[in-house]
Amino acid sequence: MSSRRSEALAVSLVSGINMAMGRLVDIWDSIGIMEEQRVERMEAVKKHIESLLNDMITEEAALKQRIGSNITNFQTQLENLCLEMSLEPSKLEEGLTVLQKEKHLRLQVEALLKEKTERLKEVRGLQQEDEELCVELCATPYYIPTGSLPSRTQLEELRQHIQTLTQEKDSRVKVFAGLREDIGRMMQEMGHEPETSLEKEAVCNDDDVFLLTQENIKALKLLLCQLELKKKSLTSTRDELKGRAVSLWERLDVPELERAGFQEGLLGPLSEDVALWQREVDRLEVQQKARLGDVICKVRQELVHYWDKCMFGPAQREVFNSHFCDDSFTECLLSIHEAELQRVKACYEKARPLLENVDKWEKNWALFQDFERKASDPNRFSNRGGALLKEAKERVRVQKMLPKLEEELRIGVEDWEKIHGSPILVRGQKVMEYISSQWEEHRLQRGKEKNERMTKKGETTQTFKTPSKRPHGGISVGSTPNKIRKTPNQTMLRSTCPSTSGTPSAFISMSAKPPLSANKGQKSRALDSSHTPLQELNSEKKNLRIGSYSEFTSELSKKTNQDAILNSTAKDIF
């Protein structure tokens, strides 16, 4: 379509020239211009038209050359920009005209130049922000070579680097604020005035005083740690002075109202409290010197109390006996007593867990012995109010608790000896030896009680075998059980049986053979009577081994069952 239009325009141009030349000829004819002049004029027209066309051709050729040069320049510029901006070079489509190539390349170059300008502007802003953060945090800036244009990847890494620094800054700001707040509060609690430049800057309200560096954070943490140690030292000093003052109040019988009045004034910082407690201790010590006798007596009472808590034996207490019995009350004697009291208190605190476990064992041991005594009491089977069931449950609990406590004590004593290199004494004995001695004493006591029972049983058996001087008389069936007179040579068995009236009646058996219901008790008595007290004691010594709780309880259960049978039989007889 475009080619036809150009051809039509060419034909129209030729036609127009021909018409113009025809009009010129007509004008020349009308004027009367001769042929020679007419030829000259036609040559002039020709030259003018040729010159015009040549100029146009020259201009269009120059345009073509300029477009070709532009294409070359744009291609070169585009390659350089792609290289500088780290981009892949673009490829032109096939079949494009010269003008299309020039336009396509020109638009690409313009777009890359715009992106380059924006990158340079952005990188300048990002680098400035990065440098400021790095100065505050004493960090290393993101490196971009001077004079080079950052790539898109480098720009993204720079943005990420700035984001990381910003987060680190926020984190450090919180840490700095927390440290400075803690330091300020610590100084206020202690009543400590800032002395060093670091302490003054730490409590300063200006946030720009400190750079947010790791070194400054470490310095503030170290300062806080030092202040915490100082506070701990002041607290310890105050507690010691307070303990000393309370001890002196007790020794000097200071009224409670006076004590409360002094403590109400302790509302200031630690340093002021320490100063007030120190003045109070100094005042009380002056009063103490005037009342040495009473004070030393109270120290001795406190010393005895802590001896008991430490479970000291006589030998351990005897060491201090000369000072304890000294009646010449002097400041030197008071100092000796106070030093001994502090030593015993320190011993108690050092061995407190073990001593508390020993105390717990002694309490359970006392319950165990109490249950052993109750086991031999026949009246306990009355079971009034479920007491027997409660006693059985508590007995089981104590029997489980004792070996557990003994094992804990054994492990604790071993650890103590490994750490301190010396044994811990309870009542003058090593802990496990003390426990073993208690078990041995308990075993011997049970043997003694058993011998006494066997002796009484032997006497009772001899009494049964001795003929009675009383006439053998009978007892009526209808008599009341309370009115039955028991004689040693009679084996009486009371049982209730239904009477014709529906009320229980007492049946008294006078024969030598007991009823079948009593065979078990008779066999037990016969079996027990065949052993002498000495044989039974030797047997008990052989079966029981101190230190083995399970064997002890097993043997104890067997003996308890036998005692229960004997007690039941004796109850039926008597």
Order of helices and strands: HHHHHHHHHHHHHHEEHEEHHH
Strand order, largest beta sheet: 1-2
Q: Largest sheet at a glance?
A: 2 strands, antiparallel
Oligomer state equals single chain
Q: Average the pLDDT over all residues and give the rounded result.
A: 76
Query: How much is the radius of gyration in Å?
Result: 60 Å
The total of helices stands at 18
Taking the alpha carbons of the first and last residues, their distance comes to: 148 Å
Which descriptor suits the 3D outline?
elongated
Class computed from helices, strands and strand pairing: mainly alpha
- Detail the poorly predicted runs: 468-553, 560-574
- The helix fraction, in percent, is over 70%
Strand-residue fraction?
under 5%
Number of strands: 4
List keywords for this structure.
574 residues, mainly alpha, two-stranded antiparallel ribbon, 18 helices, 4 strands, elongated
Explain what the structure shows.
With 574 residues, this protein is mainly alpha-helical. Helix content is 74%, strand content 2%. The chain has helices spanning 2-31, 35-84, 98-137, 152-190, 197-202, 214-252, 256-264, 270-290, 292-310, 314-318, 321-324, 331-350, 352-375, 387-420, 431-465, 519-529, 533-543, 549-573; strands at residues 425-426, 429-430, 494-498, 504-508. A two-stranded antiparallel sheet has the order 1-2. A two-stranded antiparallel ribbon has the order 3-4. A hairpin with a 2-residue loop joins strand 1 (425-426) and strand 2. Helix 2 runs parallel beside helix 3 and helix 3 packs parallel to helix 4. The model is unreliable at 468-553 and 560-574 (pLDDT under 50).
